[in-house]
Amino acid sequence: MAHRITWLETGHSFEAESDEAVLSAARRSDVPFAYDCRSGGCGTCRVRVVQGEVRYDDELPMGLSEEEAAAGQALLCQARACSDLVLSADPPDLGTPPQRLLARVDSVQPLCSDVTRLCLELPVDAGFSYRPGQYMNVHLPDGGHRSFSMASAPKGAVVDFHIRRIAGGRFTDGELAQLQPGDALEVELPLGSFCLRPQDYRPIVMLATGTGLAPLKAMLEALQGDPDCPPVSLYWGARTEADLYLHDEIAQWGEGLYEFNYVPVLSRAGDAWTGRRGHVQHAVVQDLAEQLGECAFYLCGSPAMIADAKKTLVAHGADAGFFYSDGFVFQRRDAPVTATSSPDITTTKPVVSATVGT
């Protein structure tokens, strides 16, 4: 049975069968809802159901909490229509449309034992820009791709990426180690809708695990010197101190920000570690419990962290309408090639964004 779906803000209208994801029907009708991973992890395709009802095949997708679903939010990549629907979502404003082009390797250097900084030089005449938080796809010779978030704000032709090595990964444990300055990579960018929302006019709280730091770094660089920059807190989670690959550099970022607070949190800290222990979401609650309802949250890293952070923060007063996230899911060499757009291997991203890659 087909149901009529209407996008309130744009007037787009299309039909979706009751047994298909609403996003699949929207794409078939060229309706431009934002999306990234298409697996329910990143939350990019989040909408508010104004009229009607949706269902999910099994349980709620990882990117949607029970509280968010109860408040009328839905993820179109997994939601099935149970009736005609009226949906509300801001139309994506992502700047330049994606382009597929050849980038040149500028440099490759280790940041820690399993994270590499890859700097790519893009054609200066490409005529495009990206928004901090977005990502690119690296296209592989076998027809697959890997996604990685830009780790630097738009400035000049050289773009920075943080790439974690995944054992058995086609790209991160294979091609990446062989790259030399001047080598060419076929890339597609900009992609994804994970980006700053300055219209929120709220203090910003960023939560990252691992290389989920990359798109947040790009955002923070973009905020440097901005007279309207709100207070920003960055909580970066890692296993051990050795995994905090930009620890010393981050401590200096506050010089160009209005008010900046950096809190590294380790889940497997050694005896010598004197900083915070545990998980980033719990550290945020401990520090900001009285302020959570006033903040906007940017979460990037493992889908498990993102899901638990949303649940935990909402339970302590955070507004579910001000969560923006980009989750990373990893594929290995023997994983089937998919068309999902996500970072390193598959980001439920971005997500992406960003991102990780294999």
UniProtKB/TrEMBL annotation:
Keyword line: 2Fe-2S, Iron, Iron-sulfur, Metal-binding
Residue stretches spanning the membrane: none
Protein name: 2Fe-2S iron-sulfur cluster binding domain-containing protein
Pfam family, one: FAD_binding_6
Domain 2Fe-2S ferredoxin-type residues, every copy: 3-93
Organism encoding this protein: Hydrogenophaga crocea
Molecular function as annotated in GO: 2 iron, 2 sulfur cluster binding; oxidoreductase activity
Domain FAD-binding FR-type: 98-197
Domain of life: Bacteria
CDD domains assigned to the protein according to its UniProt record, in alphabetical order: fer2, flavin_oxioreductase
Cofactors demanded by this protein: [2Fe-2S] cluster; FAD
